[in-house]
Sequence to fold (50 residues):
Amino acid sequence: MEESHVHRLNRDQIIELEPNLKEYPEEAIFAHKEGALDPVFATNLFRKKR
Fold:
């Protein structure tokens, strides 16, 4: 059986993972195999390649 890549984080874990947030939720879900990107950065990158 495959181990889940989705984990529930408590507030302390969130602070450790994302120390620069202005506000911290009490808990969050973290999926380490999921990708994310900055949409503004990606748009500007695509515009420069044209």
Q: What stands out?
A: The first strand starts at residue 6 and ends at 10. Helices lie at 11-17, 39-49. Strands lie at 6-10, 27-31.
